[in-house]
Amino acid sequence: MSVVVLRTAEEVRKTVEEWRCSRRIIGFVPTMGALHPGHLSLVSKAFEHADTVIVSIFVNPAQFGPDEDFESYPRTLRDDIDKLEKVGANAVFYPEKDIIYPEGFSTSVHVSNLTDTLCGKYRPGHFDGVSTVCAILFGIVKPDIAVFGRKDAQQLAVIKRMVLDLRFDIRIVGADIYRERDGLAMSSRNRYLRPVERTQAAALFRGLSRAAELAGKGERDTGRLCEVARQIIAKSPLAVVQYLEIVDQDTMKPVERLDGPGLLAVAVRFGKTRLIDNIVLDPGASYKED
User: Fold this and answer.
1) How far, in Å, CA of 189 to CA of 114, rounded?
2) Are strands 145-149 and 26-31 parallel, antiparallel or unpaired?
3) Domains observed in the chain
4) CB contact set of 230 (below 8 Å; sequence gap of 6+)
5) Could you confirm whether 49 is annotated as catalytic?
6) 252 near 234, Cβ under 8 Å?
7) SS3 per-residue string spanning the chain
8) How far apart are CA 240 and CA 10, in angstroms?
9) pLDDT digits (tens, 9 = 90+) for 108-161
10) Among 41, 170, 212, 237, which lies 20 to 30 A Cα-Cα from 140?
11) Catalytic annotation, pick one of 39, 49, 110, 126
12) Per-residue pLDDT tens for 234-290?
């Protein structure tokens, strides 16, 4: 069955209402397109909880800073649709900007506390753009469940908080990070990497994995765990670490001692390309690198 392409909010609402009349559970996967196997795994995850899945493709200008890659961000709609058909997605919502932000639009959704660390510290306004567009999309699609990848762990925490605070009747599901064979987390921005940068980028996961291994053996000193990961990443001469921190998974606040599971999160630049990744550290839990 071919995936249905919907361009307006009215088309989405009509289609979703038809599904609901058939008593279907609606799953939703919001994306910015340039889909890779990681995105497709989110669709598969959605089908674990829903009967019907709709995917949105919208490169959201509100979450890009003035010096970021909005204009050059890859737009590959035809290829994206082909991929979504292969994994069985039922519909794609592909709106123009004025459908999401019509003339006179003047509302922004801000989630406090969770957005002043990690990426929020270096990308001011980014999470306001994310939470605002997700609130709009949730209002249009009205899904039963929505799936977000754990690679963007801070984004996942922000969306969960927003859904809780604004009483959206939606269950947010986190999906595991999908990785290349050498461990690099899949990202639409990986295509920006030059061959030498791509090779060196595998050091991110090596550093995270080593820290997880030490935490599994009982190391609780977060400074020590961060330093071990940083040293491994530093062996890649093109890597410029923006941040490398251990935070609480729910609050995104720094953790001084690992007395329970914590999130080791990292952002690294290779040339003009900024990559993020993370891993959960669990003291005393065995860890084996895939």
Assistant:
1) 24
2) parallel
3) 4-175 (3.40.50.620), 188-281 (3.30.1300.10)
4) 207, 241, 244
5) no
6) no
7) CCCEEECCHHHHHHHHHHHHHCCCCEEEEEECCCCCHHHHHHHHHHHCCCCEEEEEECCCHHHCCCCCCCCCCCCCHHHHHHHHHHCCCCEEECCCHHHHCCCCCCCCCCCCCCCCCCHHHHCCCHHHHHHHHHHHHHHHHCCCEEEEEHHHHHHHHHHHHHHHHCCCCCEEEEECCCECCCCCECCHHHHHCCHHHHHHHCHHHHHHHHHHHHHHCCCCEHHHHHHHHHHHHHCCCCEEEEEEEEECCCCCCECCECCCCEEEEEEEEECCEEEEEEEEECCCCCCCCC
8) 45
9) 999 999 999 999 999 999 999 999 999 999 999 999 999 999 999 999 999 999
10) 41
11) 39
12) 999 999 999 999 999 999 999 999 999 999 999 999 999 999 999 999 986 655 554
